[in-house]
Specification:
Elements lengths: L1 E6 L6 H13 L2 E6 L14 H14 L7 E5 L8 H9 L5 E3 L3 H9 L3 E3 L11 H9 L11 H9 L2 H9 L4
Parallel strand pairs: 1-2, 1-4, 2-3, 4-5
Helix pairs in contact: 2-6
Amino acid sequence: MRAVFPGRFQPFHLGHLAVIEWLLSKYDELIIVVGSGKDSHTIYNPFTAGERILMIKKGLKEFNVDFTRVIFFPIMDSFTSGLWIRNLELYSPKFDVVVSGNPLVISDAREAGYIVDLPPMFNREMYNATKIRKLMLENNESWSELVPKSVYSFIKEIKGDERLRDIARNDY
């Protein structure tokens, strides 16, 4: 069976990694959909879709996850109920299962007739992208412990943490 796992991955962290490892233990193939594909350079979505795909690939490689069974692609958001899943069907290879904890995604997937699998939350209080971005904004390097080392290095290389702080600056 092929499962689809949508997320924003802003940034990709160890909780995401744990879910992906769990999914690959259950399913033959996994489609990772990078949501908010056109959004970047905001506090909520600081990284581009391409940067996020690279983060995921680097993190999976670091932990020796077989990503030959993984398909990656970005998708733009749709805020109309039912339209998001239809867009996903247009751009994605066929899939059998939608994996999400997002109530709107779950509702749309079920209404479209898909099996929904709720992923376990692997230490959600700790591994939380909003928390990680907040730590970056505060210039608190403890966020480095919440992401794979390769992702930390990549974010530093592209100055993603500096970008986030620059975006957050207000000159009035």
